[in-house]
Design brief:
The chain is of the alpha+beta class. The protein is built from 21 helices and 22 strands. Helix 2 crosses helix 3.
Length: 562
């Protein structure tokens, strides 16, 4: 700019009726850290307002917009320590949207203006925190997820970019076979067509390629393990770490592409032990695995879909004796988990839209959304603690999946009160974890007879339902021993096999205790079937979608099987 153009720019900014979210006036204060924070806020706000730049101007009164002048010299000022201001600020901005300071000799006084480019692809942060302007105030962007979402949607999609060095030969054959299977599950009406498609046609239809070109998404989901180097410097890796109760590392494995098969590999490493899921002394104790495989897959696939690969981090899965912790890099775009569960709808924004679309087509993400809510519902039906989301760390999302009972009162209550809604269960879950709930939530739970004690020292109420002494009613409520139901399934298969899941349900559900809902009875039947399968007594001769259960060879060889 010429001097006259710079003066004209200053006068144009002064002529605005008020400060805007992409413009900040300062008289003369120039604390180095504040300059970095303001440049972050102005870059992000300029993106939101679809402006070509944001401006931080020194030497102008922020109320009257009069030029008051300043002796601030950005070129001869220190940042922190002995480092010059401009390189110090530039090193703290990530990503650096580009900024240029100018000293303008305005006729009414000396003015210093910082012009900063708008955020692109992702929010601009300073020293680990992203800022934004709300009205005339600077605040942390994390408090305004709706503004963060605007920034993400106005950026480019890394997952949709074509990897120029990659070819179809860089895709894993086993992953391609699995991809076709998953696509057919998602689109059963196209099963016959899929068989006729070559790989390029299929992958275009599945939205993995772009007009036949291999994308970053294709390499993530279907690439050969060695193809991850083509994504460098981006990191495509899932690290599984096994730790004991003293936080000591016992084992580990690094899982690279193809991520389509990562769920299977992870589940083979996770020690999904069988535990006594219900507390001692209950009427209907049962054994159940620590983790539901679907919940682990869903959490992993969410991490893959929402990982910010440009931050060069990896997805980390840490298995402790009583829980699994999954962490991915990148902010939680929906803002908070409660809103996601209440909306129970497909997410409006994904960090990697192209990748998310491909995962939908390959049956890795539920097209109807609600995956997080289903995770909570699944844990609730298993009478385990609900997942914990930790969103307190910048550029990080962590979720813990619990594999044991935390509070027997909570578990008994879930068993006895199947009428509780998910909001009530979530509040009770917070209480059992020692988290404080609001007074309003306390009154809500107390009115329903679900809590005891004086606020804030609350606890889940003791068991409410009482079993009558009548023996028949006792059996109806409690149900029979587990072996009774296992023998019932084996007898049904031996006399009428192969049998479908529907036939097992018809025979079994009416015999299960009345205290369970119909959905809980189906879960119970599924667990019993899987117990027999894992024990090697039955086998599936059908498909996963349409099983046909028969007695296994191992069962037939037993001398007492008849």
């Amino acid at each position: 700019m010429s001097e006259s153009q710079e003066i004209a720019l200053i006068d144009e900014l002064r002529g605005l009726p008020t400060e805007t979210e992409w413009l900040e006036f300062k008289r003369s204060r120039y604390e180095p850290r504040l300059i970095g924070e303001y440049l972050s806020a102005l870059a992000n706000s300029a993106c939101i307002a679809a402006r070509s730049a944001g401006y931080l101007v020194f030497g102008i009164d922020d109320e009257t917009h009069e030029v008051v002048g300043t002796d601030f010299d950005p070129y001869n000022t220190k940042g922190r320590g002995n480092q010059d201001l401009l390189p110090w600020v530039g090193a703290g901005l990530h990503p650096n949207a580009g900024f240029e300071p100018r000293i303008v000799n305005h006729p009414d006084g000396r003015v210093v203006v910082f012009e900063v480019g708008p955020a692109k692809d992702q929010p601009v942060s300073f020293r680990g925190n992203a800022y934004v302007r709300v009205g005339s105030s600077k605040t942390e962007l994390g408090r305004h997820p709706e503004k963060a979402r605007v920034i993400w949607t106005r950026g480019s999609d890394w997952s949709a970019e074509v990897c120029q060095q990659a070819r179809l030969d860089d895709l894993d054959p086993n992953a391609l076979v699995k991809a076709r299977e998953q696509f057919v599950i998602k689109h059963p009406a196209q099963a016959d067509e899929v068989e006729e498609w070559d790989d390029a046609t299929f992958l275009n239809k599945a939205r993995v390629l772009r007009q036949g070109a291999v994308t970053n998404t294709a390499l993530l989901l279907l690439g050969r393990p060695e193809s991850s180097v083509l994504l460098s410097p981006m990191v495509a890796k899932i690290s599984w770490v096994l730790k004991d109760d003293q936080n000591r590392e016992l084992d580990y494995e690094h899982i690279g592409p193809p991520f389509l098969l990562a769920g299977d590999r992870l589940l083979k490493r996770v020690r999904n032990l069988t535990v006594r899921a219900l507390p001692s002394g209950t009427l209907f104790p049962q054994e159940i695995t620590q983790y539901d495989p679907w919940v682990i897959r869903e959490a992993l696939h969410n991490s893959i879909a929402h990982q910010d690969y440009r931050l060069h981090g990896r997805i980390v899965v840490v298995e402790f004796p009583d829980r699994i912790l999954l962490t991915n890099v990148g902010d939680f775009l929906p803002g908070d988990v409660e809103t996601v569960i209440q909306q129970d709808a497909p997410q409006a924004i994904y960090r990697n839209p192209f990748l998310a679309d491909a995962m939908v087509e390959l049956n890795l993400i539920d097209t109807q959304g609600g995956g997080i809510k289903r995770m909570f519902d699944t844990q609730r039906k298993r009478f385990f603690a609900l997942p914990d989301y930790d969103l307190t760390q910048t550029n990080s999302v962590a979720v813990s999946i619990h594999g044991r009972i935390l509070d027997e009162r909570y578990t008994r209550l879930l068993m006895e009160r199947t009428d509780l809604n998910l909001s009530q269960v979530m509040l009770l879950d917070q209480m059992q974890k020692g988290m404080r709930i609001s007074r309003e939530d306390h009154r809500y739970l107390k009115a329903s007879g679900l809590v005891e004690g004086r606020y804030p020292n609350l606890m889940v109420a003791e068991s409410i339902a009482k079993v009558k002494d009548d023996t028949d009613r006792y059996l109806i409520k409690r149900g029979f021993d587990k072996q009774y139901y296992l023998d019932m399934i084996l007898t049904l298969i031996r006399e009428h096999g192969p049998v479908s899941r529907k036939e097992i349900d018809q025979a079994l559900i009416s015999e299960l205790p009345d205290r369970l809902t119909e959905e809980q009875k189906r879960w119970r039947a599924q667990n019993l079937i899987q117990d027999l399968r894992r024990s090697g007594l039955i086998a599936n001769q059908g498909t996963r979608a349409q099983p046909a259960w028969v007695l296994s060879d191992a069962y037939q060889r037993r001398p007492f099987h008849k």
